[in-house]
TrEMBL record, chain A:
This is COQ6 monooxygenase. One of its GO terms (cellular component) is mitochondrial inner membrane. InterPro entries: FAD-bd, FAD/NAD-bd_sf, Ubi_Hdrlase_CS, UbiH/COQ6, UbiH/COQ6_monooxygenase, UbQ_mOase_COQ6. The gene is Coq6. Belongs to the UbiH/COQ6 family.
TrEMBL record, chain B:
InterPro entries: SAM-dependent_MTases_sf, UbiG_MeTrfase. One of its GO terms (cellular component) is mitochondrion. It comes from the Eukaryota. This is COQ3 protein. It comes from Cinclus mexicanus (American dipper).
Length: 440, 289
């Protein structure tokens, strides 16, 4: 659409600009674009990279996958993306088994009704679906590819206005946009957050995650997600198909470098050993754990579940090994006048809980709800009034989860007997207590 | 009879034949630049939008069969009487209505014009004019689908005349929305003593209890001037949360929705049709707003 102001110098004005075209930014734009109250609004999505064509999925699985919760699936469904994902590929899982390398303690999660607990989906598949759904609402959403935002100018508070009350966005190629609301979805090194001078509490873990695509020794009903806490960090096997799984192994930087460099056979051996070996057990812990387990089985006979055995790995997809550093972060504020942060720009979490992208999708559901109501009330979209409601709701939800994940990460990073005992008993107790498990 | 409403010289302030009270005008002039500070003197009016905009929107949607939820008030012409800095005109404009906002205080109109000027959508849909209601009657007979008079009638000098003017500029079967304050002991204690003098929710001196309007009197005046009152609902402000809600009781604030009877006056009240100087144009019957 042509700029509406006749003065040639005025940059085009959008109702919402989303900065960052990853999974979370694209989903935010797609959800708003499909919202009925945004039918006559103008949304822009800024993505620094080029447009990727996802016309056909390669046979090889990608090594970057996400665990999608049922809540996230609902959100993706609301903008029509879930149907595309289902028609491409995804793997539902019914059960999660989590256990300790230093003891026999184990916890399993599954839904009573044998429904899907979650889905393992390649990130490329999600992006392909979202790109299609953005194309479907091109009247509402304009996507700017290869357009990195390099500068933002913030307006003065709304009542002291002789200058433009909108946020000014400057792109790398010199083009300018104005917007009533800027949504920062530009990742854990968010430029929006830094330029808005929002303080970020962050911490680099002394860990990297190694990812790879693995082929199992034998085909199996691969519908369980496995995670074992080693002293160096958790190793997880996420099902992709009946014969393939995705690896996410969080470990020290040095060990990660070794894993990525070693030959394929040794790599596969390391993985199998990590899942099966008991060298970290000590008699003391084993005895204490066994005692606790018998105590529980007296009180609650069904409280100890059957231990399933994880599949063993035969081979790794060549060139599927990669590593990336891990850290934790949380923005002290998610919103300011005319600005909102979502996804990793607002919060960065350790992958051990498989929550990262789900927190981002949760942010989108909440923010879209408030913006939709604001649009239907004729409100100024950048007004702090509804933005603060979004912030309160999400911080309340996110902070406890991020803190818990951080605590778990630290708790499981040790072989010290007292802490192992604590977490062993804790895990066993949690496994026996339905109400706590359901919350998780 | 129309001579009562004719002015040869346009004046922003009142004459003895106007519903505008010049003392009231002076009061608001002092605060003209404070309108758009959401946390400032007018914070309570800003948050009142959270209930009055949905009230107007949903009432109009329920009376219409043809609308789009992306642009719910599209095609509706609204007159915002006593629009102040445009706090209510802007959301109605964003929802698709063509809004004319009038206010006797020129500084308010200036503030309102300036605030909307950066948004091309509002520039197109919302027009402001420094004027009293009487001054636009002649050129705006039966022009508007909806009149909104929010937090206004407690400031006018002659309420009956105000209502008659509303009727004149409203199309038959058009809607009139009023929000105002009841005249009760409670409204004196809470509305003036607490709100103005103690908590500063309302700028001091804004209201005079004598001019507050009980809903019974408002209803009587409306019904005897060709309106049918459809809804009367209490409103309550919570100073701790800074938010408004609907309430059972009308002893403090309340809102009214009334509809002007159609041209072949299908009378809703048993009172005889008013013989005062409202000219009923014979508009074509059966026009649905």
């Amino acid at each position: 659409r042509a700029p509406l102001r006749s003065a040639a110098s005025s940059p085009p004005l959008y109702d919402v600009v989303v900065s960052g075209g990853g999974m979370v930014g694209s989903a935010m734009a797609a959800v708003l674009g499909h919202d009925i109250h945004f039918h006559d609004k103008k949304i822009a999505l800024l993505e620094a990279g080029p447009r990727k064509e996802y016309n056909h999925m390669p046979d090889r699985y990608s090594n970057r996958v996400s665990s999608i919760s049922p809540g996230s699936a609902t959100l993706l469904s609301s903008c029509g993306a879930w149907d595309h994902i289902c028609s491409l590929r995804l793997k539902p899982f019914r059960r999660m088994q989590v256990w300790d390398a230093c003891s026999e303690a184990m916890i399993t999660f599954e839904k009573d009704d044998l429904d899907d607990m979650g889905y393992i989906v390649e990130n490329d598949v999600i992006m392909s679906a979202l790109t299609k759904q953005l194309d479907a609402v091109a009247d509402q959403v304009e996507v700017f590819y290869s357009s990195k935002a390099v500068g933002y100018t913030w307006p003065l508070p709304s009542h002291s206005c002789d200058t433009s009350p909108w946020v000014q966005v400057e792109l790398a190629d010199g083009r300018r946009l104005q917007t009533k609301l800027l949504i920062g979805a530009d990742g854990h090194n968010s430029v929006v957050r830094k330029e808005a001078e929002i303080k970020n509490i962050e911490h680099q873990y002394d860990q990297s995650a190694v990812v790879a695509t693995l082929h199992l020794s034998e085909a199996t009903d691969n519908n369980v997600a496995w995670q074992r806490f080693l002293p160096t960090g958790p190793i997880a096997l996420l099902p992709l198909s009946d014969t393939a799984s995705s690896l996410v192994w969080s470990t020290s930087h040095d060990h990660a470098l070794e894993l990525v460099a070693m030959d394929e056979e040794s790599f596969v051996d390391s993985i199998n050993s990590a899942f099966w070996s008991n060298i970290n057990h000590s008699d003391f812990i084993d005895t204490a754990g066994a005692m606790f387990r018998s105590a529980i089985s007296l009180l609650k006979p069904s409280g100890t579940a059957v231990r399933q055995l994880p599949p063993s790995v035969a081979k790794v997809d060549p060139e599927s090994r990669a590593m990336f550093p891990l850290g934790m972060g949380h923005a002290t504020e998610y919103v300011q006048h005319r600005v909102a942060l979502i996804g990793d720009a607002a919060h960065r979490v350790h992958p051990l809980a498989g929550q990262g992208v789900n927190l981002g999708f949760g942010d989108i559901a909440c923010l879209a709800h408030h913006l939709s109501a604001a649009a239907f009330n004729g409100s100024d979209l950048g007004s702090l009034k509804h933005l603060l409601k979004f912030e309160t709701e999400r911080q309340r939800h996110n902070v406890s989860l991020i803190a818990a994940t951080d605590v778990l990460k630290r708790l499981y990073s040790t072989t010290l007997a007292p802490l192992v005992l604590l977490r062993t008993w804790g895990l066993q107790a949690t496994n026996a207590l339905p109400p706590v498990k359901v919350r998780i | 009879q129309l001579s009562l409403f004719r002015f040869t010289v346009k004046r922003p302030f009142s004459t003895s034949h106007s519903s505008v009270d010049s003392k009231e005008v002076k009061k608001f002039q002092l605060l003209a630049h404070k309108w758009w500070d959401e946390e400032g003197e007018y914070a309570a009016l800003h948050s009142m939008n959270d209930i009055r905009v949905p009230f107007i929107r949903d009432t109009l949607l329920s009376m219409s069969s043809n609308y789009h939820l992306g642009n719910p008030l599209s095609g509706i012409k609204i007159l915002d009487v006593g629009c102040g800095g445009g706090l209510l005109s802007e959301p109605l404009g964003r929802l698709g209505a063509s809004v004319t906002g009038i206010d006797p205080v020129e500084d308010n109109i200036r503030t309102a014009d300036q605030h909307k000027s950066f948004d091309p959508v509002l520039v197109k849909r919302v027009q402001y004019k420094s004027s009293s209601l009487e001054e636009i009657v002649e050129e705006s007979m039966e022009t508007f689908d909806v009149i909104v008079a929010s937090e206004v009638v407690e400031h006018v000098a002659d309420l009956e005349m105000f209502i008659k003017c509303c009727s004149q500029v409203l199309k038959p079967e058009g809607s009139l929305f009023i929000t105002t304050i009841n005249k009760t002991q409670l409204s004196y204690v809470l509305g003036i003593v607490v709100a103005e003098k103690i908590m500063g929710i309302v700028p001091e001196g804004t209201h005079e209890w004598e001019k507050f309007v009980p809903p019974e009197e408002l209803e009587r005046l409306l019904e005897s001037n060709g309106f049918s009152v459809k809804t009367v609902s209490g409103m309550l402000y919570n100073p701790l949360s800074g938010s408004w809600s609907w309430a059972e009781s009308t002893s403090l604030n309340y809102a009214v929705h009334a509809v002007k009877s159609g041209a072949q006056a299908q009378s809703h009240s048993t009172a005889p049709p008013p013989e005062t100087d409202i000219q009923q144009h014979s508009a074509t019957a059966g026009t649905v707003p």
